Amino acid sequence: MTDILLTEIDDRGVARVTMNRPAQRNAFNDALIAALAATFASLGRDPAVRVVLLTGAGPAFSAGADLDWMRAAAGYSAEQNHADALKLSEMLHSLDRCPKPTLALVQGAALGGGAGLVACADIAIAVRNARFGFTEVRLGLIPATISPYVLPRIGVSAARRYFLTGERFDAETARAMGLVHQTVGSEEDLESAGSQLVDALLAGAPGAQAAAKELIAEIAHRPPDAELRDDTAARIAARRASAEAREGMAAFFARRKPDWVIE
Question: Is the distance from CB of 258 to CB of 251 less than 8 angstroms?
Answer without folding.
Answer: yes
